[in-house]
């Protein structure tokens, strides 16, 4: 390019000058390529936080476990009974902080960009998009998020929980909007259980009632006026810990989805899917195959406080982003949960959660 431009300058000393508009075109083209050569990669990442400028996808973090597919009607397993992800044009999500995109009314989310010293990317409890955002972006679907941090299924079951946030409230917001969504191309996702399971340690085992309340909300969504037909439920209640009550919670929901797929207690048979994230948590936090097999260098949290000050130097390879603890305060003869600061997955972990669900929907299909 430089030689051609020098040659043009030499000829211009001997030949008549080209028209002024031609000179302007040459300068404009040269300026364009000059500007393009100095694009800041960081700026490009801010413009499209879903895309990675690295050659290595997701900073090298990848699934080292995969869904364990099985049928409906038996023990809890990964399964997809009728959902075609390629046909989905809208995703409506309910849940807690693992699904909370920063807005709680289905409106467009703020960009998932982290601005230090803040630790929430656009209001999310992670340093990038949440898992279901990735799926919506992968299929170019509209994303309507109603999830909110600390939510349980039904707050009335947990009297010592100081955070009045639940699935029922999210449903009320959604239903009051009278959204006109095509049942055939809309996917409803439901992801609860973490906070319910922890609350059960304080207020007693009301997980059976919580499971039934969750199924009741799906029944409502499947009825007039919404007429929902596609439902995905995901779970990771203990995040590496398994208890009899937690497994019973999962099984109750799984049995309910089986009944819905058969047309029981719903206007017509539903397309349902279940994805068990515990396979990721068990694989990372346990020895089979262990965190290094996923590409992680640590199972810890990168951020240890409410700012990025003092955070780890390698956030792209940490399993968690925000550290967590549960603070119990004594009030008379009762212990009350006053500050639940759960560990929240890193951006890279959110990506492989999305990958896991996409594998469930693709590889665990049954008639």
Q: Can you characterise this structure?
A:
By secondary structure, the chain is of the alpha/beta class. It has one domain: Rossmann fold. It is 34% helix and 16% strand. It contains ten helices and eleven strands. It has a six-stranded mixed beta sheet with strand order 1-6-5-4-2-3, with helices on both faces. The protein has a three-stranded mixed beta sheet with strand order 7-8-11. A two-stranded antiparallel ribbon has the order 9-10. Helix 8 links the parallel strand 5 and strand 6.
In short:
The chain has 367 residues and is of the alpha/beta class. It is built from ten helices and eleven strands.
What is the CATH top level name? Alpha Beta
Helix % is: 25-40%
- Which whole number gives the mean pLDDT? 86
Distance between the termini: 60 Å
CATH topology tier name = Rossmann fold
């Amino acid at each position: 390019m430089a030689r051609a431009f020098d040659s043009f300058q030499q000829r211009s000393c001997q030949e008549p000058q080209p028209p002024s508009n031609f000179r302007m075109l040459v300068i404009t083209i040269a300026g364009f390529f000059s500007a393009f050569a100095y694009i800041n990669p960081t700026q490009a990442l801010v413009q499209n936080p879903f895309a990675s400028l690295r050659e290595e996808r997701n900073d090298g973090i990848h699934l080292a476990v995969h869904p364990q597919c099985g049928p409906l009607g038996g023990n809890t397993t990964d399964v997809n009974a009728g959902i075609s992800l390629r046909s989905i044009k809208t995703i409506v999500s309910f849940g807690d902080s693992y699904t909370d995109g920063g807005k709680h009314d289905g409106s467009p989310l703020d960009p998932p960009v982290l601005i230090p010293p803040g630790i929430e990317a656009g209001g999310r409890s992670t340093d990038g998009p949440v898992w279901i955002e990735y799926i919506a972006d992968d299929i170019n679907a509209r994303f309507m998020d109603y999830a909110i941090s600390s939510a349980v299924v039904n707050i009335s079951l947990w009297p010592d929980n100081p955070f009045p946030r639940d699935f029922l409230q999210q449903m009320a917001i959604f239903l009051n909007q009278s959204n006109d969504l095509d049942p055939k191309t809309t996917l409803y996702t439901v992801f609860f259980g973490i906070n319910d399971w922890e609350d059960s340690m304080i207020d007693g085992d009301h997980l059976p009632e919580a499971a039934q309340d969750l199924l009741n909300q799906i029944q409502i969504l499947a009825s007039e006026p919404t007429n929902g037909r596609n439902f995905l439920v995901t779970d990771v209640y203990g995040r590496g810990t398994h208890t009899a009550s937690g497994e019973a919670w999962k099984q109750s929901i799984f049995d309910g989805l089986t009944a819905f797929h058969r047309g029981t207690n719903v206007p017509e048979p539903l397309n349902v899917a279940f994805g068990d994230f515990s396979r990721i948590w068990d694989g990372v936090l346990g020895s089979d195959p262990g965190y290094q097999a996923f590409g992680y260098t640590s199972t810890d949290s990168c951020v240890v406080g409410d700012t990025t000050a003092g955070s780890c130097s390698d956030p792209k390879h940490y399993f968690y982003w925000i550290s967590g603890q549960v603070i119990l305060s004594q009030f008379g003869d009762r212990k009350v949960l006053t500050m639940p600061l759960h560990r929240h997955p890193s951006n890279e972990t959110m990506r492989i959660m999305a990958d896991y669900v996409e594998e469930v929907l693709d590889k665990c299909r049954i008639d």
